[in-house]
Amino acid sequence: MFASALWLPLLLAPFTGGSAAPPPADYWTELSAAAGRKLGPPRIQPLRYRTLQLNLPAAQRYLRAVPAEGDAPTLLTLPLPDGSKHQFRVRRSNVMAPELAAKFPELQTFAGQDAADATAALRLELTPTGLRAQIIGYGRTQFIEPYRAGDTQHYICFDKAALPPDSKQWSEPGPLKR
Fold first, then answer.
1. What's the chain's Rg over C-alpha atoms?
2. DSSP state letter for 166
3. How far apart are CA 108 and CA 95, in angstroms?
4. Is the Cβ–Cβ distance between 116 and 87 less than 8 Å?
5. pLDDT tens-digit profile of 63-82?
6. pTM for the full model?
7. In 10 A of CB 111, how many CB atoms?
8. Which among 1, 17, 38 is positioned nearest to 9, based on CA atoms?
9. Distances (CA, A) of 58 to 31, 63, 64, 87, 153
10. pLDDT per residue over 95-114, tens digit each?
């Protein structure tokens, strides 16, 4: 009888939502259209976008513990422009020379892949000006950027295709004219 009492929680876990692994970190809250309008126009003005709020202090604490490249990745939830949220396997990715990284520890960079679709690649940076992410996958390029300069709490999430044609500063330059 005692042994069955020990096994019962393990047997019921798949049916009761019990799990050994903690859920992936999600620090994002969708803002209503009215709350978004109160912020004024975003710094980048795509035709379609989501406005979100980030719990930056919690995200910073979580990202500080993300392992370096080569170690087991950490799951992080990020919003996408279509209204969904995806889980990404994230690793620290040092892009600066070690001397510069030591001089500017507040500049952190990460790389990752969608946990369900490894062909979707993530690049993420965390700086004193906020969080920025670029997701290339699902046949699209998508961004998460601070809503406005100096605001590290509010963010805009958009698809590159939603940028007006004259504002695509991330576009490849055209052929050189001779």
1. 20
2. G
3. 9
4. yes
5. 888 887 766 678 999 999 99
6. 0.79
7. 18
8. 17
9. 18, 9, 10, 17, 11
10. 888 898 889 989 999 999 99
